[in-house]
Design goal:
Radius of gyration: 19 Å
Helix content: 25-40%
Number of strands: 9
Strand content: 15-25%
Structural class: alpha/beta
Distance between the termini: 39 Å
Shape: globular
Oligomer: single chain
């Protein structure tokens, strides 16, 4: 085992997102009371990627049980609650969850918050939810397959998993700023990618010192094929562009991906 392998990435990432929430960075900035008021009157939209989600991916959410998975920050869950859904927010970061609680208290919303690891949803019963709403976050765990299995378990038969993630091409390039300045891509890392296993020790230590979350790049076989293998049928797919390109490839192709997947009806005699 290398020294990198000994890093407690979960505690580190929890602290990193706690910090982002206290600083109210982009994904930790609560929505306004005006937006909540509009949602109560049926004018609302939520995001899996930078662009608003197509309306037919969620449909009428009134009365639906929705799990916002690794989706705290005071943004998506309060909007869905204001639109009439029964919302539970599950996230690793206590401070991210606090943002949802603040919006709920400010605007009189009824939503529940639960802290935990997205790979273990044991606090929830089987078939408890109609929808799992899972914006880009599975890059913070080294194996996405347990996430899909838990989503499948907590969804009712016919329930939908709405998930987004980065095109894994963003993980393979050398991150030398000189290459970025020249508009060059030099493939360096193989998939699956891991900060812990692939970054040189000095680069990894710099990320730790800066309080940056550790990330992992999954293959499409695990991101999309993994959902199908778990028992989902994908009935929606979209790509979206990065509005603030960080990598050269962001300038030439959409690097956000999202899927809508439905839990297949169990076979006769099978456990749902």
């Amino acid at each position: 085992m290398s020294s990198n392998d000994s890093i407690d990435f979960l505690s580190h990432n929890r602290a990193a997102w706690d910090r982002q929430a206290t600083e109210e960075r982009e994904w930790s900035r609560p929505v306004s009371s005006e937006l909540i008021a509009a949602a109560r009157h049926g004018d609302w939209r939520v995001h899996l990627t930078p662009q608003p989600l197509p309306a037919d991916w969620l449909g009428d959410v009134r009365g639906r049980r929705i799990l916002c998975l690794a989706s705290a920050g005071g943004q998506q869950a309060p909007v869905l609650a204001a639109a009439g859904a029964q919302v539970t927010v599950f996230d690793l970061s206590d401070e991210q969850l606090m943002q949802d609680r603040r919006v709920a208290e400010r605007d009189g919303l009824d939503l529940a918050t639960v802290q935990g690891d997205m790979r273990d949803l044991g606090v929830f019963a089987d078939a408890q939810f109609d929808i799992v709403f899972h914006p880009i976050s599975n890059l913070y765990v080294p194996d996405v397959r347990p996430v899909w299995r838990e989503c499948h378990r907590v969804l009712k038969a016919g329930g939908a998993l709405l998930a987004s993630f980065y095109n894994p091409v963003v993980f393979i390039g050398d991150r030398d700023p000189a290459l970025l300045a020249q508009g060059l891509v030099r493939p360096l890392y193989k998939l699956p990618y891991s900060d812990l296993g692939d970054l040189p020790p000095e680069a990894l230590e710099k990320k730790r010192q800066n309080g940056e979350a550790m990330v992992f790049g999954h293959s499409l076989a695990d991101l999309i094929g993994g959902q199908i293998a778990t028992g989902f049928s994908i009935d929606g797919f979209l790509e979206d562009a990065q509005p603030h390109p960080r990598f050269v490839v962001d300038r030439f192709m959409p690097t956000f991906l999202a899927t809508r997947a439905v839990k297949r009806q169990p076979l006769p005699g099978a456990t749902p």
